[in-house]
Specification:
- The complex is a heterodimer.
- Chain A contains four helices and no strands.
- By secondary structure, chain A is mostly helical.
- In chain A, helix 1 crosses helix 4 (70-83).
- The radius of gyration of chain A is 11 Å and the shape is globular.
- By secondary structure, chain B is an alpha/beta fold.
- Chain B folds into two domains: 8-248, 3-Layer(aba) Sandwich (Peroxisomal Thiolase, Chain A, domain 1), CATH 3.40.47; 260-414, Thiolase/Chalcone synthase (Peroxisomal Thiolase, Chain A, domain 1), CATH 3.40.47.
- Chain B contains 13 helices and 15 strands.
- Chain B has helices at 23-31, 66-69, 74-89, 111-124, 133-137, 141-150, 165-178, 196-204, 243-248, 277-290, 310-322, 335-338, 345-359; strands spanning 8-16, 38-39, 52-53, 100-106, 155-157, 184-191, 234-242, 255-264, 297-301, 330-332, 361-362, 378-379, 384-385, 395-402, 406-414.
- Chain B is globular and about 65 Å long.
- The chains are: A mainly alpha, B alpha/beta.
- The A-B interface holds A 19-21, 42-43, 45-46, 49 and B 65-67, 70, 127-128, 130-132.
Chain lengths: 84, 415
């Protein structure tokens, strides 16, 4: 069953809180990981691995580098889980 | 010389040890003669001949926040906790970042992270390794994190000399200030190695006490019944500052970090030279470097780990190096309480030596029921008053020796 955007955002927020300590209410779709949420590229790798496990999707490194905002990840996971 | 820019003083102290979560509680526990050694209840310990160790009194995860802790080895958490305490204790000084240095050592570095990462690699594959695995396992990780936190940019260094590392870091820090590279240096050492592999490896060397039925009695330097050291964990830090910089901000001064001396045994990779020549040389060089005479020295915090071979050689080396005053020099082995913190030892014991000088009291060596013969120095078995012998400032020494043949002595004098 496909996840809604809200479900993906909620799951992603949990991961970001766990790994980077950013409270869920600050993780809004337009935020960029590096500039707005102050998440470095190493923590971004951790978040991506956790997202792969949680949502059952693959996020290859060459895709990860293009995921700049929270919405980018939500969209990517939404597309990848439909095609999976 | 007052306000000499090349004279170095100690303006802050920090420690997290098996007997206390900070420097004041550690010092009070030492004066009270409290042991930090206990039985290891971990499943893995039941497979080993040694089942005792001195765990930190305060878990570092209660000091470092959860998100940062994910990126840190346990030894880095200890280092950050002690560094924050030392920095705050010094009054969080304002200093040009380009004139602030960090010298923080470790004997082994992030060995716990190595072991955990290898398990992850074998069980789950490379992609499940934390992206922070490398900065967690590198021995200079603690120094790097402290530099980041303080914004220190004069230079960040990590001398590695096994159990002499912490003392060597303080010596290096003194030299950084004397040579004009920095006004303030945060220096010390850290270790977190109470794990199956390390205990097993030290047991394979026959280096550990096997007094499993009496953990608190196991570490007993200078006692005839000693049978090896007890592994401890934790960190010690000092804030070193040029006397002129400290004076300019009216900083509280604990002591003068007067100098350090070094030598190498070139005798055996892990056993002390039985004639103690290297230790004698390090102590003499330290006095020379500090411009201190033997007559000024009233106290030595000995390396004394409670191994059969090392303690007597060291006591005799102290006696030989200090000559005619040796019989009235009060020697303490605080490892009798903290266990052996490896790369953290020289730093924690420098903190203890500085507090002994400051309070004019040598801490006790516990568990000395049957003192070794012919040591040539007085072993403090209870808190012992220290008094200067003449008008010159009283001096104390911290000895630290390491596998590899490293000998380091650091001299502190009364402020």
């Amino acid at each position: 069953m496909a996840m809604t955007q809200q479900e993906i955002l909620a799951g992603l927020s949990e991961i970001i809180d766990e790994i980077a300590g950013v409270p869920a209410d600050e993780v809004t779709p337009e935020k960029t990981f590096v500039d707005d949420l102050d998440i470095d590229s190493l923590s971004m790798v951790e978040i991506a691995v956790a997202a792969q496990d949680k949502f059952g999707v693959e996020i290859p490194d060459d895709q990860l580098k293009d995921l700049k905002t929270v919405q980018d990840v939500v969209d990517y996971v939404g597309r990848a889980s439909v095609s999976a | 010389m007052p306000n000499d820019p090349t004279r170095v003083v100690v303006t802050g102290l920090g420690a997290t040890t098996p007997v206390g979560g900070d420097a004041p509680s550690t010092w009070q526990a030492m004066l009270a003669g409290r042991s930090g050694v206990s039985a290891l209840t971990d499943d893995w310990a039941q497979r080993l001949p040694c089942q005792i160790a001195a765990r930190a009194a305060v878990e570092p995860t209660t000091v470092v926040d959860r998100v940062q802790a994910r990126k840190l080895d346990r030894c880095e958490m200890f280092a950050l906790a002690a560094a924050r305490e030392a920095w705050a204790d010094a009054g969080s000084p304002e200093v040009d970042p380009l004139r602030l240095g960090v010298v923080v050592a470790s004997g082994i570095g992030g060995i716990g992270s190595v072991l955990a990462a290898y398990d992850t690699l074998k069980e789950k594959g490379w992609s499940r390794l934390s992206p922070f695995t490398v900065p967690m396992l590198m021995p200079n990780g603690s120094a790097g994190w402290i530099s980041l936190e303080l914004g220190a940019r004069a230079g960040v260094h990590t001398p590695v000399s096994a159990c002499a590392s912490g003392a060597e870091a303080i010596g290096y820090g003194i030299d950084m200030i004397r040579s004009g590279r920095a006004d303030i240096v945060l220096a010390g050492g850290t270790e977190a190695a109470i794990m199956e592999l390390n205990i097993a490896a030290f047991a394979a060397m026959r280096a550990l006490s096997l007094r499993n039925d009496e953990p608190e009695r196991a570490s007993r330097p200078f006692d005839k019944g000693r049978d090896g050291f007890v592994l401890g964990e934790g960190a010690g830090m000092v804030v070193l500052e040029s006397e002129s910089h400290a004076a300019s901000r009216n900083a509280r001064v604990y002591a003068v970090a007067a100098g350090a001396g070094y030598s190498a045994d070139a005798h055996h990779i892990a056993q002390p030279d039985p004639d103690g020549a290297g230790a004698v040389l390090a102590i003499r060089r330290a006095l020379e470097n500090a411009r201190v005479t033997a007559a000024q020295v009233t106290h030595v915090n000995a390396h004394a780990t409670s191994t059969p071979a090392g303690d007597v050689v060291e006591a005799q080396a102290i006696a030989a190096a200090l000559g005619e005053v040796a019989a009235s020099v009060v020697v303490s082995a605080t490892k009798s309480m903290t266990g052996h913190l490896l790369g953290g030892a020289g730093a924690v014991e420098s903190v203890a030596a500085i507090m002994a000088l400051h309070d004019r009291t040598a801490p006790p060596t516990i568990n000395v029921d049957d003192l070794e013969d012919d040591l040539g120095v007085e072993i403090a078995v209870k808190p012992t008053d220290l008094n200067p012998r003449g008008p010159e400032p009283m001096a104390v020494i911290n000895n630290s020796f390491g596998f590899g043949g490293h000998n380091v002595a650091v001299v502190f004098t009364a402020a």
